[in-house]
């Protein structure tokens, strides 16, 4: 049973960068939470504060109720996996894994047993005597994971562990890590700026921007119901159309859509897959480009004022460049002042 | 019918050849002469080659007590200086490389600046101080002066080596429970190892061969092998003593060179300088 609590944590770097800004989060026992956000949004800084490598300027971090805010990293019950595996190249795989156990003065046979067990767990049984430099990138990252797991930390921290790997390997390791995490049942905080990584692995996603939380929710909720235009634009593909609402109708150029909110400016969010098209001349928009993916097609449309809109269609063959279409959204959300003001389900 | 010639006749590079010949003469010839003298029993003018080769002067040289005591002296001195220098300089280098403290840059620069002065002038000044401290003619006086000589590369090279160590590796070690001291010992030092070994080697060899400081501070009580060699060359009518000692002195530097080559080839030496 291990719960990580981050309360009102702020990190101000000398020089004035506010990397993390009054951030709060509670990670439940056995949960995997992804920190997702663009570059520079403070994900690594937050993770490093939990690991003890940065000191929060203010705020509180606890594990199972114990205050660890100012504890040095070697005293913390956390295990960190770095982006650049950070394995010790002057030791072989076994020694890398045994180092932490030796510091804990475990008997040699116990160390051997635990190292071999964890190597099995990450699928590298029998690799103990290999030099770190003789491993592939994926294997190195598995060893790095094993090095943390072998100490049975209460909290596992991963900072973009697959960022340096190729797409294919990344997807495979992602599944493996998720699998191991669930089997061991370890509370995990995972940093990524890849949305598919977050969507496929996480129990919950924290979307960060400029050191602050934009939204914390289950992946499907973050995808279906983004709370801010930033989240809407960051996760998946989303049409974000700026316009004005008057008398219950949203208008942008030749496109209008009923929207039951107070008059004023608004941003309308429509997923490409929730946008139906009806052939019409001249139509609200013109087809700019048709891309056929085999299973479906993606259309780039232009409003008369140049606004780009994407739509997903089942039969791209029906559409030609330059053709006019009317837009019929099945589901929309609307934002004003960075807050959601309207949402309709398909 | 003439087949087109594959070999394009190149103009002969006379300048290159001239350089090669001159270099060979300047470097190899003196070595050859010294080497020959060392194994010569009789060599009288005007003969071009010695009348009699032999090991006579090796026996004579190695039978001298002052030769043996100076060999022991040189080895003890070089070892002592290298060990002391490592104890003082490695932690200092780590501090320069990793920690941020007030006056860091000025202090680092002052280490280097000491070597910008004309060396002999500096030595004479130090000798004056040592005279008052009764350090002239003592082993520890020589150790001290040699120690100063090693500071430059025993700080500079390890600083570069420590800076080249991946900080994430050190953090990973903290993460699994190692104290900062333990991280230094088990991660940083081994990672910087080959480059630091090269610095230690330089320190040892540099001390072993240093003559000015050793002579100025140590004479006449403390006599290292190179100092003895110089006095042989200056004062002995028999050339062979000096020649034998020269060949003897060549051995440790050759071993050091072989060792250094391995270190440099391993690439980490260059990495230490950020290459
Ligand atoms: N040691 C430091 N000193 C000063 N500023 C820093 C330091 N580390 C990070 N920052 C700043 O803090 C902000 C957040 O950085 P952080 O590394 O946490 O971002 P990130 O979300 O991990 O980005 P990325 O996805 O690129 O890794 C950035 O503006 C960065 O420049
Ligand atoms: Mg980062």
From TrEMBL, chain A:
GO process annotations (BP): putrescine transport
Domain (ABC transporter): residue spans on this chain: 4-235
Pfam families, sorted: ABC_tran, TOBE_2
Species in which this protein is naturally found: Devosia riboflavina
Family annotation (PROSITE patterns): ABC_TRANSPORTER_1 (PS00211), ABC_TRANSPORTER_2 (PS50893)
Protein name: ABC transporter
Family under the similarity heading: Belongs to the ABC transporter superfamily.
Lineage: Bacteria, Pseudomonadati, Pseudomonadota, Alphaproteobacteria, Hyphomicrobiales
A single GO cellular-component term on record: ATP-binding cassette (ABC) transporter complex
UniProt-recorded Gene Ontology molecular function terms: ATP binding; ATP hydrolysis activity; transmembrane transporter activity
UniProt keyword annotations, A-Z: ATP-binding, Nucleotide-binding, Transport
InterPro entries in the record: AAA+_ATPase, ABC_SmlMolc_Importer, ABC_transporter-like_ATP-bd, ABC_transporter-like_CS, Mo/tungstate-bd_C_term_dom, NA-bd_OB-fold, P-loop_NTPase, Transp-assoc_OB_typ2
């Amino acid at each position: 049973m291990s719960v990580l609590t981050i309360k009102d944590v702020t990190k101000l770097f000398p020089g004035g960068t506010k990397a993390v800004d009054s951030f709060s989060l509670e990670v439940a026992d056995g949960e995997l939470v992804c920190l997702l956000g663009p570059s520079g949004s403070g994900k690594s800084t937050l993770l490093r504060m939990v690991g003890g490598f940065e000191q929060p300027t203010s705020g509180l971090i606890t594990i199972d109720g114990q205050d660890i805010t100012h504890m040095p990293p070697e005293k913390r019950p956390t295990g960190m996996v770095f982006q650049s595996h950070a394995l010790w190249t002057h030791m072989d795989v076994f020694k890398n894994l045994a180092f932490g156990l030796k510091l804990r003065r475990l008997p040699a046979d116990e160390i051997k047993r635990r190292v071999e067990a964890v190597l099995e767990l990450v699928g590298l049984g029998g690799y103990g005597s290999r030099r770190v430099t003789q491993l592939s990138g994926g294997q190195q990252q598995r060893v790095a994971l094993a090095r943390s797991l072998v100490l049975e930390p209460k909290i596992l921290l991963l900072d973009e562990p697959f960022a340096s790997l190729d797409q294919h390997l990344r997807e495979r390791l992602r599944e493996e890590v998720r699998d191991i995490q669930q089997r061991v049942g370890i509370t995990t905080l995972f940093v990524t700026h890849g949305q598919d990584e977050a969507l496929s692995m996480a129990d919950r996603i924290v979307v960060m921007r400029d050191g602050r939380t934009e939204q914390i929710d289950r992946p499907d909720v973050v995808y279906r119901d983004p709370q801010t235009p930033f989240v809407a634009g960051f996760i998946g593909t989303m049409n974000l159309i700026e316009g004005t609402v008057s008398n219950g109708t949203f208008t942008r150029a030749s496109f209008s859509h009923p929207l039951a909110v107070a008059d004023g400016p608004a941003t309308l969010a429509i997923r490409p897959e929730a946008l139906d098209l009806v052939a019409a001349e001249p139509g609200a928009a013109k087809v700019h480009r048709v891309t056929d993916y085999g299973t479906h097609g993606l259309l780039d449309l232009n409003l008369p004022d140049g606004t780009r809109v994407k739509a997903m269609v089942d039969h791209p063959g029906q559409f030609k460049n330059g053709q006019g279409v009317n837009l019929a959204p099945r589901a929309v959300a609307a934002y004003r002042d960075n807050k959601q003001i309207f949402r309709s389900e398909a | 019918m003439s087949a087109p010639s594959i070999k394009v006749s190149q103009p002969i590079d006379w300048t290159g050849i001239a350089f090669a010949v001159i270099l060979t003469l300047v470097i190899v010839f003196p070595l050859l002469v010294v080497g020959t003298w060392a194994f010569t029993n009789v060599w009288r003018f005007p003969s071009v080659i010695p009348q009699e080769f032999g090991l006579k002067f090796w026996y004579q040289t190695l039978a001298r007590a002052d030769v043996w005591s100076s060999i022991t002296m040189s080895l003890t001195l070089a070892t002592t200086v290298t060990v002391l220098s490592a104890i003082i300089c490695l932690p200092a280098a780590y501090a320069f490389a990793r920690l941020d403290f007030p006056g860091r840059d000025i202090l680092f620069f002052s280490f280097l600046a000491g070597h910008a002065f004309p060396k002999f002038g500096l030595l004479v000044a130090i000798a004056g101080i040592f005279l008052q401290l009764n350090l002239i003619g003592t082993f520890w006086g020589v150790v001290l002066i040699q120690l100063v000589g090693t500071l430059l590369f025993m700080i500079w090279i390890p600083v570069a080596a420590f800076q080249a160590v991946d900080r994430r590796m050190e953090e990973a070690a903290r993460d699994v429970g190692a104290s900062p001291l333990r991280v230094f010992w088990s991660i940083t030092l081994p990672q910087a190892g080959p480059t630091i070994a090269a610095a230690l080697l330089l320190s040892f060899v540099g001390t072993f061969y240093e003559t000015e400081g050793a002579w100025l501070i140590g004479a006449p009580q403390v006599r290292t092998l190179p100092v003895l060699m110089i006095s042989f060359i200056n004062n002995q009518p028999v050339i062979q003593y000096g020649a034998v000692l020269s060949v003897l002195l060549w051995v440790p530097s050759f071993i050091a060179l072989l060792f250094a080559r391995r270190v440099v080839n391993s690439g980490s030496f260059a990495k230490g300088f950020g290459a």
